[in-house]
């Protein structure tokens, strides 16, 4: 594990407002043996110009563009095929990592002998203002817990490809991050979270998490299509999911006086 290469997969689509800051948060990591693989999903804004300028000053940054808009799942899988690192990590184009993120997680994985981990993360608004809100996942996360609620922030997850292989992402446009972590956790049954907050998630008005109705619809699709459940079983799972969202998950969202 010593100084192992980390492949960081970033999908972009019309991300000109945010992508430079996202990449810069990786370039400021205290752990420096990484590669960034950016796959642009046929952007129509200035994203490509920005990617070209970034790649020109840092050879660890690679980018390519899809011929047509195909969704983040396809973009991430395209990046995954190009990845050379032992460790696979994810960052969306509008989110940020804290400088110690990679080093802290890799040290945690080594000391706890775990092939997959994730962490707490803070929240900011669309303009980048910190909201003093921290999402703190369960310290020990079981597959059953994840089945009823996605506690893994996609911007925090890292897995060891020597243990899992390269885990393909389903090409769904919605909820494919949750299905990805379910696929991984099913193999090990439980996982440990790094207790520190290591990333910052940007809450945007057009994100799926901003629409509770869409969230319910797409999560039902996970139970019905990904898990292959009957309508009755999927509805039963959705009732547990909704109860979890209303009565359990709020306990994992903390107000913090000052974000570090």
UniProtKB/TrEMBL annotation:
Domain of life: Bacteria
Protein name: Glycosyl transferase
Signal sequence residues: none
GO molecular function: hexosyltransferase activity
Pfam families in the record: Glycos_transf_2
UniProt keyword Nucleotide-binding, yes or no: no
Organism: Flavobacterium faecale
Record-linked InterPro entries: Glyco_trans_2-like, Nucleotide-diphossugar_trans
Keywords: Membrane, Transferase, Transmembrane, Transmembrane helix
Residues that span the membrane, as ranges: 228-248
Domain Glycosyltransferase 2-like: 7-128
